[in-house]
Amino acid sequence: MEERNFYSNQRRIRANRHIRELAAPVRLHHHDFIQPLFIDEALTQRQPIASLNEINSDTIASALEQVENDLQKDISKFLLFPVPAHKAENIFDFSFFKKVIETIKEKFGNDVWLAADVCFCAYTSHGHCGILNKQGNKLLNHETVTLLADYSLQLAQSGIDCIAPSDVMDGRIAAIRNKLNENGFDDVSIMSYSAKFQSNFYGPFRDACHSSPAAGQKLKDRKTYQLSFANPNDAISTALRDANEGADIIMIKPSIIYSDIIYRLKQLIQQPVAAYHVSGEYQSIELLAKQGLLTRSNGHIEIWTALKRSGADIIISYAARHVKEWIEKIEY
Ligand code: PBG
Fold first, then answer.
1. Ligand 1 center to residue 325 CA distance, Å?
2. In whole angstroms, what is the distance from residue 226 CA to residue 244 CA?
3. Among 67, 183, 201, 209, which is 20 to 30 Å from 283 by CA?
């Protein structure tokens, strides 16, 4: 009898489903999720993306169907990625993306919330996220930011709800905010890819968007603009700077491998924090599931819960459209 006192009593709150539900403070809700969509100008019909399980590259027509299906699953927030058919050095044609936004908004109006990934890596012939200098060894900050602000204004004129700059140039949040405000688009929000790391986990995405830095050039990778994964201080400074420049939502990307940054930022800023579970992170779960090594839905739910636990308010996931269905069935 006395011996029982040697045991702690923590297992009581794990004893059955009911008490586990009552005891757990972390919850997922489909309202917190954003679904990425790829829309490819060169396609005449929807095409599966081989490296991203279950995800397609859409035409404008198939994107409309996709949005309709997603709305039925109570997913109404989208992050749009345009894949333009033509690449150039520094003069880009934004008309395709504008048409995408106008067409979706025309059909669904305010039933949907559209964020635009704003970057030039899918537009440039060299695959970098901005304008290269003549020597080809550096991205020009001012020229890139000026063009990003013009681009953002055009997207705002087309009806976008949120601008999500992913280029990681300096000062682009202030430049975009000013440009939008000067033209009467005070209501268009900005979700900054603030802590965007130079990551090995973007591979499947770059396949989908044809946006890898081209081989054989002086500037081989994105290390001079995306953040070093060994420098958390830079991530915090950059995010605080973006918040000060007027970013409404601060994003951390990739997500699960940077949950330390999510946790720290959540303590420091009042803006909502978004975690982007990127293509390589997503696909690693998909591949484990394909091999029968985990259950797909449970794998994603565990990751999403970890992101929430770390402090993410918003989750961007390629499996967002399954959230409602999966979490209804979850047993904690
Ligand atoms: C564009 C951009 C990238 C991603 C989102 N926007 C790729 C990159 O920076 O090379 C990655 C998203 C993902 O991997 O899911 N700059």
1. 27
2. 19
3. 67
Task: Tell whether ligand 1 has an atom less than 6 A from the beta carbon of residue 279.
Answer: yes
Q: Taking a C-beta distance cutoff of 8 angstroms, is the pair 273, 193 a contact?
A: no
The three-class DSSP label of residue 163 is: strand
Q: How far is the CA of 110 from the centre of ligand 1 (A)?
A: 26
Q: List the alpha helices (DSSP H) in 24-166.
A: 60-72, 95-108, 141-157
Higher pLDDT, 222 or 209: 222
Whether 124 is in the pocket of ligand 1, judged by its Cβ within 6 Å, is: no
pLDDT at 8 (0 to 100): 77
The alpha carbon of 278 is separated from its chain's Cα centroid by a whole number of angstroms, namely 7
Q: What pLDDT does 90 receive?
A: 86
User: For the residues 320-328, what does the mean pLDDT come to?
Assistant: 97
For residue 111, the CA-to-ligand 1 centroid distance in Å is: 26
Reported confidence tier of residue 82, pLDDT bands at 50, 70, 90: very high
101 alpha-carbon distance from chain centroid: 17
Half-sphere exposure of 281 (CA within 13 A, CB side): 22
Q: What is the pLDDT of residue 209?
A: 86
Catalytic positions: 196, 253
Neighbours of 301 (CB within 10 A): 20
